[in-house]
Amino acid sequence: MSGKSYTKTIKDLSPVLYEHIDEPDRAVYEVRRGELDLKTKTCYDETTIFNGLLGVELPKTFGHYHPRNKEGYFFPELYTVLEGQAWFLLQKADKSNPKVIQEAILVKAAKGEKIIMPLGFGHLSVNPEKKDLKLANWKAEFDNDYQIYESLHGACYYLLELKDGSVDIIKNSFYEMVPELIKVKPKKLPEELKNLEFLTKPEKYLNLLTVENCFEKI
Ligand SMILES: [Fe+2]
């Protein structure tokens, strides 16, 4: 690890939270940036999402979309769960209207599993347990685009904890169209993807990077 790290607080996340929370300086998650791997041209980061509800909302990251590579294909990303259990909320928007969502997917993953973020999906990570969640991710060298999540007050769904401990999933009314949320778990990472070339050259692996190949319904 390069040692570079930053912490996101309640105040930093306030544009995407379900409700106002009066603890601006509380840390929600911490990201430790790794060095660029010169062989694979990928970056490795670790993120810890701390235990603790955000009001009634499950602790989460801000959410972002990825840019396209120079061949014109959106960059995918690869995650693994280091500690805890992880949920990933994925959404694919209409090309001309980010308020219209075509696909919304909730991926539930356990410690040790690998999870691909398929091409064109915005995503955020959620900590559904009462303990810290630690994730690692590999991606090509690019900057995330947070703007759509910021302007639409978060993802197309909010995950809220009810008094009995169950989770209520409600649509974000700033979106115009939100499909039913599909719940899935990750499929095993194919051998062909283990060299990580798909992160920089997704166009060579399109047949493996479909939603159907990455996930199975639960
Ligand atoms: Fe990402």
Task: Describe what you observe in this structure.
The protein is mainly beta and 218 residues long. It is 8% helix and 39% strand. The chain has 4 helices and 13 strands. The chain has helices at residues 10-13, 147-151, 197-200, 211-214; strands spanning 4-9, 27-37, 42-49, 77-83, 86-93, 101-109, 114-117, 122-126, 133-140, 157-161, 167-171, 181-186, 215-217. The strands form 3 sheets. The protein has a 6-stranded antiparallel sheet. A hairpin with a 5-residue loop joins strand 10 and strand 11. It is globular, with a radius of gyration of 16 Å. The chain starts with a strand and ends with a strand. The mean pLDDT is 97. Fe (ii) ion binds next to loops. Fe (ii) ion is lined by residues 64, 66, 77, 117, 123, 144.
At the fold tier of CATH, the topology name is Jelly Rolls
What is the strand content? 35-45%
Question: Percent range for helical residues?
Answer: under 10%
How does the major sheet shape up? 6 strands, antiparallel
β-strand number: 13
Lateral strand order in the biggest sheet: 1-2-3-9-4-7
**H-E string:** EHEEEEEEEEHEEEHHE
The whole-number mean of residue pLDDT values reads 97
Low-confidence stretches: none
Q: Number of folding domains?
A: 1
The CATH architecture assignment turns out to be Sandwich
What is the name of the CATH superfamily? Jelly Rolls
Could you say which overall geometry the principal axes of the C-alpha atoms support? globular
Small ligands present: fe (ii) ion
Class by SSE composition: mainly beta
Total helix count?
4
Distance between the termini: 35 Å
Radius of gyration: 16 Å
User: Mind telling me the CATH class?
Assistant: Mainly Beta
EC number: 5.3.1.9
Enzyme class: isomerase
Pathway: Carbohydrate degradation; glycolysis; D-glyceraldehyde 3-phosphate and glycerone phosphate from D-glucose: step 2/4
Catalytic activity: alpha-D-glucose 6-phosphate = beta-D-fructose 6-phosphate
